[in-house]
Amino acid sequence: MKKKIFVTGATGFVGTNLIRRLIRENYEVHILKRKNSNIWRIKDILTKLHPHEVDLLNRKRLLKLLHTIKPNVVIHLANLGLYGGLDTSLNKSMQVNLFGTVNLIESTDSIDYECFINTGSSSEYGDKNTPMKEYNRCEPTSNYALAKLATTLYAKSYAVKTKKPLVTLRLFSPYGPFDHPLRLIPQTIHKMLKGETIHIKNPNTVRDYIFIEDVIEAFIQCINNPDKLSGEILNIGSGKQTCVKDMLELLTKKVDFKNQIIYDDLKNPQKFMWQANIQKTKQKLKWYPKKNLSQGIEETVNWFKENSCYYD
To answer: N or C: which end of the chain has fewer CB within 10 A?
Structure first.
C-alpha cells in the first residue's frame, strides 16, 4: 500500500518541486489548495494528485479532511510570503502563517503520522554578523519573519510537549525551476533571455542560495529518517553567501547576456552576513548540498530557456 503524504502550499515554488519528486517516488500525494489557487505549476500533474479545497483557517473542515485521509506524512509549506520586498500586515501574517499552522498541527493531533515537516525561513534570524546557527537569538525585522518565528516556536513547543515527530526546516534562499516570477533570479533570467537592460538597486546584498533539488532532498531525508528529529529546527542552505553582483555576473555567463546591467549603490557595502551554518543539519539528516551555485544556476537557466512561456 502506498504511503499517503499530505502537502500544503503544493502550488508554490517549493511545493511544486516537492510533489513532483513524491510522485516519482510513488507516494499517494494529497494536496491542499484554495479555490483561487493559481495552478500553473501543477496543471500537467493534476491527474496524479488528490487535491482538496479546504482553508487552513477552517479548523472543522480541516479536521474532518485529515481524519478521512489519515496521512502517514504531513508537509506544511503554505505561507503568506514576502516577495519583491513587500511585507504584509502583522494581522494577516499571523492569521495565515501562525494560526493556519496551529490549526493544521492540532488537527493531526490524534493521527499517528510518521513525520510532520514544518517549513521555516532564514528571515526569522534577522541581521547577523556570523553564519546563522539554529540556537542563535532570533531578531526578525519584518511582519512575515515575526509570524514565521512564532510558527517555528509553536511547532517546537508542541513537539517537545507531545513527543510527536515534528521537525522544522528553516529554508534560506532556494532557487530553480518554477520559482516565483517576482524573485531576483527568475526575474533576471527572464529579462536577460529577452535582451532587456537589467537594473539592480542593491548589488552588495548577500544571500545563501540553495538549489531546489538539494532543498527537496532534505525533505526526503526527513521522511525517510524521522527518528530523533522531534522538536528539531534545521537550517537548509548551502553554507555559503553570495552577493547579488556576483550572482548577476554568473547569470550573465550562463545566459550569454550581452546587454547592460545598471547597478545602484555599488559602493554601499553589505553590513551583515546572510549565511547558514549547516553542521547540525549534516549531522542530523546526513544531508549536504550536492549542487554548487554554478551547477544550479546552469540547470536553472536551461530550464528557463525551455519554459520561459510561464513567465511571459
So the answer is: N
